[in-house]
Amino acid sequence: MAITLLDDAAFEATFVPPMRGLLDEPPPVSIGLKPYVTEAVAALGIETALDAMTIPHVFVSAEDRYTHVLFEYGVLDTYLVVVVDNAAKAIAGHRILDMRKLYGLERSPFE
Questions:
Q1: Nearest CA to 69 among 22, 5, 17, 1?
Q2: For residue 34, what is the enclosing H or E element?
Q3: Cβ count near 53 (within 10 Å)
Q4: What are the structural domain ranges in the chain?
Q5: CATH code, 8-103
Q6: What is the pTM of this model?
Q7: Which among 58, 92, 67 has a CA at the least distance from the CA of 15?
Q8: Which of 10, 31, 49, 67, by CA, is between 20 and 30 Å from 90?
Q9: pLDDT, one tens digit for every residue, the chain (111 residues)
């Protein structure tokens, strides 16, 4: 399976305000992520078992254009983000998102 590591510009382009968090509703497009996540974890050298990863947050951009699925993998406030292009019904790519580094935080923005 081909995977795509999104650079800063490509990742930022998937943020179409307003972003909204999904709580109990399904995402706009249902795509199996496991094969992609398996490849991304291997390519990034993330040392975790897939069944140990959790999805604490899912965000959808304006007009349901993109879905960001955040996977926790054992590093505090750092996520493997898989971006789904809902219009194409395909995975656009992935990115590591380190919230503390990005925002200079001392505690989790989700606490």
A1: 22
A2: helix 34-44
A3: 16
A4: 8-103
A5: 3.10.450
A6: 0.89
A7: 67
A8: 49
A9: 899 999 999 999 999 999 999 988 888 899 999 999 999 999 999 999 999 999 999 999 999 999 999 999 999 889 999 999 999 999 999 999 998 787 776 665 555
